[in-house]
């Protein structure tokens, strides 16, 4: 059953959502089925696109709203929240 | 403005070093793209044309990536990896295709429109770091545009030697093709320290000053230009006095500081007099003088596959012979290690379908796991005519110097035996025809596959020399791809398992008294050098420009201290702990 979830996360990386985290996000989402969107400063983009993520230019401490919809929405949300929390392994 | 007056411009220092040469305007702008309508029933073939351009762009980036893999500063490989991901991004694929279908115009004008959108975006972003990342997006789009519009564009690999390249802006795909031997320096109107073009310029040792008003150059008749990338100064039409000053400065700064430069003429030896030989890795004949000037003990790794890249086909036996012969002669008796083509597998070349040699790679098909695929000696044994031509060229060159043959990607002694048998057969054929061949030509094995590392005693017994290629060995032993952001943290030459393997290889080579070379990026890593020295490595092979650095570090160590360091390092069983230990111990000693 399709579930829709939203959650607010904070960018903790020193350099913000730059290339490496963007690529990591896209990779993490590859095995998942849900659609995932980021909303930042009233702009909503597809989180499966590195270029779109980069163009948000979200710096450190930005608040991003993650919305997930699909059959594995819960797993997708868990992965996203943890990835932001762990700074995409850059801590 | 007075003609030929000396003018000093100040900019942002991006990459150190001094460049002296003639100015050259380099442009990557997108002028004159006609906008045409595409009718509805032709739109699918237009979309197909776009897809093809995207495909060719991907191949470009992959090719550049494979070529940078061995040679390269890891930064370049990472940057190209990101570009590859961008080329698969929905914004470049499905979104673009939908746009073409919706607008019904030629792909060029649509891509150009998108680039303009990105540029607008780019101006609105205040954060310099992000601005630079958006520049990558523009770069990738431009590459696609280039394939849609196959007009001959200027490329940095084909400019006159020592050119001072003036550009409004540089993108990574421009700089990745540039070589320090060819480009004197970069001067740009925009650009920042963290741009990928800057990272690449630094990695390649090309001086670079940004934020200079390059339009000024058009106003006065610019003759000679001096670029001081350390101070961020550009001098146009220097007086002979200034020129002299910078020429001598440049001499001293070829390596980042004079201390290292002075080491090029000194022996590579430790404080207590242990001799270390430092060889050069190179790809082309024209680099050889640079290597000799930097004090190379010889050529430790001639990467012959680069000969394919410039020719878009395999060089003939005669072409190879001429190159190897000239190299051997220039080296005046110093060793020349020629590595058999390391191609195939994950290093396939995209020859044009019309190329006479395209069938070699086509024959391999799409290997499901190219990194574990038909590469190097595996590939060459499949095409014995290529192998024999190369071996014959090596043998023909052997009478002019100390030519060695190196077999890449050896898995066990069988490959060595097969090559040896071919060499014996070819030399006796040549002798029968009255051709001169060196009495014996040393044949060595690359140790870069775990199986060959584990069999190093058997290989050391049968081969004439061994060469450890740490880049691939680390990747295969740790089963970690350094281009994959999820595993690149595991990829480390200073891993306890690698140290143990290297120790084992050294023990085998000394047991059978066979020379052992170490090549790969770790040979030029200031943290790894003392450790490798302590483990027992006495021959390093590195990019020419790193030779003074290696010498400089070796000359600061006592062999006993290095051995002690290696012994202590071998006590660590966890890569992170070892890394901390090394950083702490070595930064204090390397100074």
Task: Summarize this entry quickly.
With 91 residues, chain A is an alpha+beta fold.
Give the strand order of the largest sheet of chain A, numbering strands 1, 2, ... along the chain.
1-4-2-3
Category by helix and strand content of chain A: alpha+beta
- For the biggest β-sheet of chain B, the strand order reads 10-11-12-13-14-15-16-17
Estimated helix fraction of chain A: 25-40%
For this entry, give a set of tags.
heterodimer, A: 91 residues, alpha+beta, Histidine-containing Protein, Chain: A, 3 helices, 34% helix, globular, B: 591 residues, alpha/beta, Glucose Oxidase, domain 1, Enzyme I, Chain A, domain 2, TIM Barrel, eight-stranded parallel beta barrel, 25 helices
Structural overview:
- The complex is a heterodimer of chains A (91) and B (591).
- Chain A is of the alpha+beta class.
- Chain A has one domain (3-89): Histidine-containing Protein, Chain: A, CATH 3.30.1340.10.
- Helix content of chain A is 34%, strand content 29%.
- Chain A has 3 helices and 4 strands.
- Chain A has helices spanning 19-29, 50-56, 73-85, and strands at 3-10, 35-40, 43-46, 63-70.
- Chain A has a 4-stranded antiparallel sheet with strand order 1-4-2-3, covered by helices on one side.
- In chain A, a hairpin with a 2-residue loop joins strand 2 (35-40) and strand 3 (43-46).
- In chain A, helix 1 (19-29) crosses helix 2 (50-56).
- The longest helix of chain A is centred in the C-terminal third of the chain and has 13 residues, at 73-85.
- The mean pLDDT of chain A is 89.
- Chain B is α/β, with parallel strands linked by helices and 591 residues long.
- Among the domains of chain B are: 7-25 and 162-173 and 184-194 and 207-253, Phosphohistidine domain (Glucose Oxidase, domain 1); 40-148, PtsI, HPr-binding domain (Enzyme I, Chain A, domain 2, Orthogonal Bundle), CATH 1.10.274.10; 281-441, Alpha-Beta Barrel (TIM Barrel).
- Chain B is 48% helix and 13% strand.
- Chain B is built from 25 helices and 17 strands.
- In chain B, the strands form 3 sheets. An 8-stranded parallel barrel of chain B has the order 10-11-12-13-14-15-16-17, surrounded by 7 helices. Chain B has a 5-stranded mixed sheet with strand order 2-7-6-5-4, with helices on one face.
- In chain B, helix 19 (456-462) packs parallel to helix 21 (496-511).
- The interface between A and B is medium-sized, with 20 and 21 residues.
């Amino acid at each position: 059953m399709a579930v829709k979830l939203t959650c607010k996360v904070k960018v903790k990386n020193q350099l913000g959502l730059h290339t490496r985290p963007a690529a990591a996000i896209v990779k993490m989402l590859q095995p998942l089925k849900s659609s995932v969107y980021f909303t930042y400063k009233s702009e909503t983009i597809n989180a499966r696109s590195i270029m779109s993520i980069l163009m948000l230019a979200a710096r450190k401490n930005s608040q991003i709203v993650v919305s997930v919809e699909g059959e594995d929405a819960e797993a997708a949300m868990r992965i996203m929240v943890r990835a932001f929390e762990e700074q995409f392994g850059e801590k | 403005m007075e003609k030929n007056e000396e003018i000093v411009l100040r900019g942002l220092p991006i990459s150190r070093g001094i460049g002296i040469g003639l100015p050259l305007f380099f442009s990557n702008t997108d002028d004159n793209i006609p906008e045409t309508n595409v009718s509805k029933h032709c739109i699918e073939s237009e979309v197909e044309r776009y897809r093809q351009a995207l495909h060719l762009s991907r191949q470009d980036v992959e090719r550049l990536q494979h070529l940078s893999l061995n040679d390269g500063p890891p930064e370049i490989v990472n940057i190209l990896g990101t570009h590859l991901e961008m080329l698969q991004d929905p914004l470049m694929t499905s979104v673009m295709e939908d746009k073409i279908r919706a607008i019904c115009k030629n792909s060029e004008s649509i891509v150009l429109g998108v680039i303009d959108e990105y540029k607008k975006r780019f101006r609105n972003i205040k954060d310099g770091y992000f601005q630079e990342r958006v520049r990558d997006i523009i770069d990738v789009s431009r590459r696609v545009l280039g394939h849609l519009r196959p007009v001959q564009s200027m490329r940095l690999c084909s400019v006159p030697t020592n050119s001072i390249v003036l550009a409004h802006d540089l993108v990574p795909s421009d700089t990745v093709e540039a070589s320090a031997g060819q480009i004197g320096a970069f001067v740009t109107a925009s650009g920042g320290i963290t741009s990928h073009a800057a990272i690449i310029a630094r990695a390649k040792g090309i001086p670079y000053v940004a934020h200079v008003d390059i339009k000024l150059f058009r106003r006065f008749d610019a003759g000679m230009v001096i670029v001081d990338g350390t101070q961020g100064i550009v001098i146009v039409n220097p007086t002979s006095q200034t020129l002299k000053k910078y020429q001598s400065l440049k001499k001293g700064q070829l390596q980042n500081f004079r201390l290292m430069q002075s080491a090029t003429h000194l022996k590579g030896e430790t404080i207590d007099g242990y001799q270390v030989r430092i060889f050069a890795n190179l790809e082309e004949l024209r680099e050889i003088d640079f290597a000799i000037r930097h004090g190379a003990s010889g050529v430790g790794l001639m990467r012959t596959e680069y000969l394919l890249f410039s020719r878009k086909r395999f060089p003939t036996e005669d072409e190879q012979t001429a190159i190897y012969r000239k190299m051997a002669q220039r080296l005046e008796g110093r060793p020349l290690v020629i590595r058999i083509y390391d191609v195939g597998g994950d290093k396939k070349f995209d020859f044009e379908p019309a190329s006479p040699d395209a069938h070699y790679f086509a024959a391999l098909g799409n290997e499901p796991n190219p990194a574990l695929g038909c590469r190097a000696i595996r590939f060459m044994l499949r095409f014995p005519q290529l192998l024999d031509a190369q071996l014959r060229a090596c043998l023909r060159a052997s009478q002019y110097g100390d030519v060695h043959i190196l077999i890449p990607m050896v898995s066990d002694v069988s490959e060595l035996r097969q090559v040896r048998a071919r060499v014996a057969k070819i030399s006796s054929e040549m002798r029968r025809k009255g051709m001169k061949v060196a009495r014996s030509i040393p044949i060595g094995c690359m140790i870069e596959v775990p199986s060959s590392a584990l069999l190093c005693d058997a290989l050391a017994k049968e081969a004439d020399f061994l060469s450890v290629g740490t880049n691939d060995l680390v990747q295969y032993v740790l089963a970690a791809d350094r281009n994959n952001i999820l595993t690149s943290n595991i990829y480390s030459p200073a891993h306890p398992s690698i140290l143990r393997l290297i120790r084992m290889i050294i023990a085998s080579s000394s047991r059978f008294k066979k020379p052992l070379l170490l090549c790969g990026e770790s040979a030029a890593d200031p943290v790894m050098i003392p450790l490798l020295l302590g483990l027992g490595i006495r021959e390093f092979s590195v990019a020419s420009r790193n030779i003074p650095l290696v010498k400089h570090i070796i000359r600061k160590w006592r062999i006993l201290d290095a051995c002690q360091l290696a012994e202590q390092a071998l006590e660590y069983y966890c890569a992170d702990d070892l890394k901390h230990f090394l950083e702490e111990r070595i930064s204090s000693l390397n100074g």
